[in-house]
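Board notes (copied after class):
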Amino acid sequence: MNINDRIELVIRELGFNKNSFSKQIGLTSNTVLQNILGGRKNKPSYDVLSKILLTFDSIDANWLITGEGDMYKTTFNSTVNIEKANVNNALGHMSGGKFKGGDMNVTKPNNKLDEYEKLYYETFDELTKTKGELLKAKDRIIILQDKLLNNS
């Protein structure tokens, strides 16, 4: 599946046609989208890709561009990495600075800290998964609102 096919899949998955999708992402006409999805099969510009990703923030940019991974975001790796770094720093202070270079290889003062750390990451993973589901729901609500407004 190439990038043109993935854009077409996004349009179908979100319940749009080419014209309504063009309007939703802020294109002034659907000619650009027709050239991408129609007979010409032009590659989308940066502008088109950024409009799609900014309008539908639950769509995974890596999947849209490369085809790798899932269509919808399920985790937010940059946030997770930042949070893990913050936890590492905090745990480093608590354990007397026995962390090795900020990675997860740690000499901890007791098993209770292991339990708290595990619980933290499990909870954080659950929250990021829920956030991804909420972003999908938000995109669907936006679509429904747009359809209601256009039918009024």
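Comment from the instructor: The helical segments are 3-13, 18-25, 31-37, 46-55, 61-66, 77-94, 111-151. Confidence is low (pLDDT under 50) at residues 76-83, 93-109.
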